[in-house]
Write a structure and sequence with these properties.
Elements: E1 5-13, E2 19-24, E3 32-41, H1 44-51, E4 59-61, E5 66-74, E6 86-89, E7 92-93, E8 107-108, E9 120-124, E10 128-130, H2 137-141, H3 144-157, E11 165-168, H4 174-185, E12 189-194, H5 197-205, E13 210-213, H6 219-227, E14 230-235, H7 244-247, E15 249-257, H8 270-275, E16 279-282, H9 288-300, E17 307-312, H10 316-324, E18 331-335
Parallel strand pairs: 11-12, 11-14, 12-13, 14-15, 15-16, 17-18
Antiparallel strand pairs: 1-2, 1-4, 3-5, 3-9, 3-18, 5-6, 6-10, 7-8
Length: about 325
């Protein structure tokens, strides 16, 4: 190992196994801090990058968007008071001036900029926030991208209100579990769908009032019958059954989508959209204000992320395999 080297997860080229390599330790530039990463976490985005299904760099990448650690050094223009502080990283870069939508220069740590699955990372000081007092570094690392995406979906875009009927599709992944937490924290009646009976039962043990297997032919009717109608849907699947969501909505309902794990959206019956005056909303990640609001909400409600499993960095391929096989319930965390 070089005197100033560091260990990092490394994608030499898409389609090849992820490696552990020795890389040059970064130095903080102007208005940047150098963070010794304690823990990082995986997102499906990292899996798509590994498989070459994500726009951006296709080789020589340190992936990872989520991370928490300790500030070790600061660059020019940054107060030395940051040194030694435990922090959580906001993973978005160059959102731009419009809070409603990201700029064309917006990107996320882990591609094309090297990410958090490394012993050290240098990021702008505006991208670091103090770790909430009630969280460990392990818990803090699990939050950033998924927690932010869920917060913006629920509140900034979805206008989640206390006591509403909420449907969260595909329960089990990290982002939807954050959305589940936020909805339950506002005493919403939460319904879920899943392809796994076991995951539905786990959601019920956390406070879900009902659910349905999306592999069943009449899952939407089942949810509608149990709930009496849904006010807000948080969806990351899209797919051919997306249009069925419109039929189970209450008038004035909102459907928020942030992914298409089930493929392109199928037909949406227009009569539901205009007669029920529904809103279909897209969302991606979130800006710095969303991130600050998410951390404040998390602190006020004393929430903690659902963590599936913690892997050492040396077992990073096993962590990716677990996500690829959809075995996780919650966030997969990596100990750096």
């Amino acid at each position: 190992m070089q005197a100033f080297g560091m260990k990092a997860a490394y994608i030499a080229q898409t389609g090849s196994p992820i490696e552990i390599r020795q890389l040059e330790k970064p130095s903080p530039g102007k208005d940047e801090v150098l963070i010794k990463v304690g823990f990082a976490a995986l997102n499906h985005r990292d899996l798509w990058i590994l498989k070459g299904k994500y726009a951006g760099r296709k080789e020589n990448i340190v992936p990872g968007s989520d991370g928490a650690g300790t500030v070790e050094a600061v660059g020019e223009g940054v107060s030395a008071e940051w040194i030694g502080k435990q922090v959580i990283i906001y993973p978005g870069l160059n959102w731009g001036p419009d809070p409603a939508v990201q700029s064309s220069d917006f990107h996320i740590l882990g591609n094309p900029t090297n990410g958090t699955l490394a012993e050290y990372i240098a990021v702008p000081v505006d991208n670091v926030f103090a770790l909430p007092d009630h969280l460990s570094l392990t818990e803090g690392a699990a939050i950033p991208l998924s927690g932010l995406t869920a917060y913006r979906a629920c509140f900034t875009r979805g206008n989640l209100k206390t006591g509403e009927n909420v449907l969260i599709t595909g329960i089990g992944g990290g982002t939807v579990l954050f959305a589940f937490q936020f909805a339950r924290a506002l005493d919403a009646r939460v319904y879920v769908t899943s392809g796994s009976q076991e995951k539905m039962e786990r959601a019920r043990s956390m406070g879900a009032v009902g659910g349905a297997l999306y592999t069943a032919p009449y899952w939407a009717e089942e949810i509608a019958g149990k709930s009496g109608g849904i006010d807000l849907v948080i969806d990351s699947a899209a797919g051919k059954d997306f249009g069925m969501l419109a039929g189970l909505m209450n008038p004035g309902g909102r459907i928020v989508n942030f992914g298409q794990t089930a493929g392109p959206i199928g037909e949406i019956p227009a009569r539901y959209l205009f007669w029920k005056q529904l809103s279909v909303l897209g969302t991606t990640m979130g800006n710095r204000d969303d991130f600050e609001g998410m951390l404040q909400f998390y602190s006020e409600k004393k929430l903690k992320p659902v963590i599936d499993q913690v892997f050492p960095l040396e077992e990073i391929q096993a962590a990716f395999d677990r996500m690829d096989q959809a075995r996780q319930f919650g966030k997969i965390v990596v100990r750096i």
